[in-house]
Amino acid sequence: MSFGKDKKALLSRRTIFKAGLVSGMAMPIPMTVLGQAPNQMRPQQGDQLVFDEGDRIGELIGIDMLELDQQPVSALARDPETETIRDGSRLNRVMIMRLDGQKLSSRFQANAAEGIVAYSAVCTHTGCDVINWDEGLLRMACPCHESQFDVYDGAKNVGGPAPRPLAMLPLEIVDGIVTVAGIFKGRVGFTQNF
Ligand code: FES
């Protein structure tokens, strides 16, 4: 009887393995097995954001440090427990800004925290950093081929060759600090990256 049970279990495992091969599904592999360094990991839920440029580089970003509709600032995620700043990949860089939450497209309000939003800094065209700002139109702009992104509409591409919006990083405010509420929404980087 026990041999019958073992055989059933073996068949069951084979069936699962075969199904995985046929479907092309990869078994989940923990991050630690992949050996990805903590500073290379994409921003994680609970990470705090810190300035990535200027006089305040490395400083935690408080809710009151950003002014309405001003030029976005470059930021990185920081693990609050280890204080590791995730600066090991340029795909981790985000541009954050404070918007009028009432005017932000309703589809993206869940990703904002009291009007503060964060978008990937990497252009979806060929990967330049989207560091320019059109203060009249309130659009992020890429210096390489002039793509433009509407920050009030989920960084939708509204000009130039970029094929899709910038990825959005969900935020929340925890103890007054701008904090990551989840993984990126949308694909980070440009098409040839993946
Ligand atoms: S890389 Fe941004 S528009 Fe070309």
| Beta strands, count | 10
Bound molecules: FE2/S2 (inorganic) cluster
Give the terminus-to-terminus CA distance: 50 Å
The helix/strand series, from N terminus to C terminus, equals HHEEEEEEEEEE
Tell me what portion of residues adopts beta-strand conformation: 15-25%
Assigned CATH architecture: 3-layer Sandwich
Q: Rg from C-alpha positions?
A: 21 Å
* Average residue pLDDT: 86
Fold and architecture overview:
The protein is α+β, with helices and mostly antiparallel strands. It has one domain (35-193): Rieske [2Fe-2S] iron-sulphur domain (Rieske Iron-sulfur Protein), CATH 2.102.10.10. The protein is built from 2 helices and 10 strands. The chain has helices spanning 2-23, 31-34; strands at residues 48-51, 73-78, 94-98, 116-120, 132-134, 139-141, 148-150, 156-159, 171-174, 177-180. Strands 1-2-3-4 form a 4-stranded antiparallel beta sheet, with no helix packed on it. A hairpin with a 4-residue loop joins strand 5 (132-134) and strand 6 (139-141). The structure holds FE2/S2 (inorganic) cluster. FE2/S2 (inorganic) cluster binds at residues 123, 125-128, 142, 144-145, 147, 160-162.
